[in-house]
Design a protein that fits this description.
By secondary structure, the protein is α+β, with helices and mostly antiparallel strands. Helix content is 19%, strand content 42%. The chain is built from one helix and 14 strands.
């Protein structure tokens, strides 16, 4: 009798596991595809060692719009990572949903998404711009400061990579 119940329990657990496996797999795949980014809302933003004001300040960022990758959330705090790999915790009110990217190297902004297109601007490493969309290896970007819209190569930027439409 005990053996029969144990066999039925094992069978039941296997059926549940098999039925929920695709859902678990889809959730993991979604997380990998949709890396969440935010940007700094203020020119004076503290990154802390832990999720709370009692934790020591690790960095003070003075670059509005700097993109940060969200690693995890705890209460009103986000653990974030910057383009140089610095990790720490930031209060949610210091972060914006504005989608920005930072240039990993000196680069160009092109009029069209083509390497032979007219270059409309030179861009310095660590410049921050808004990102509009990406398709294949090109991303449409905008610099509000310099009133420039154009395209750059995806491999030259780090941050929010938005939908694959142009």
């Amino acid at each position: 009798m005990k053996k029969n119940i144990l066999t039925h329990t094992k069978t039941f657990l296997i059926i549940i596991f098999i039925n929920y496996l695709p859902i678990i797999s889809m959730a993991e795949e979604k997380d990998q595809k949709e890396t969440n980014f935010k940007s700094l809302k203020h020119n004076n933003s503290n990154m802390r060692l832990g999720p709370g004001e009692r934790f020591e300040i690790k960095w003070n960022f003075k670059k509005i719009g700097l993109p940060v990758k969200i690693i995890q959330k705890y209460d009103l705090w986000f653990e974030v990572e910057t383009s140089d790999g610095s990790k720490g915790w930031m209060l949610n009110r210091l972060l914006s949903k504005k989608q920005t990217v930072i240039f990993k190297q000196d680069s160009f902004i092109y009029k069209k998404p083509n390497i032979t297109s007219k270059i409309i601007a030179n861009v310095d490493k660590n410049s921050i711009v808004k990102i509009k969309s990406c398709k294949n290896e090109w991303c449409k970007i905008e610099s509000e400061t310099h009133k420039i819209k154009g395209y750059t190569m995806r491999k030259h930027i780090w941050g929010a990579i938005v939908s694959e439409t142009n």
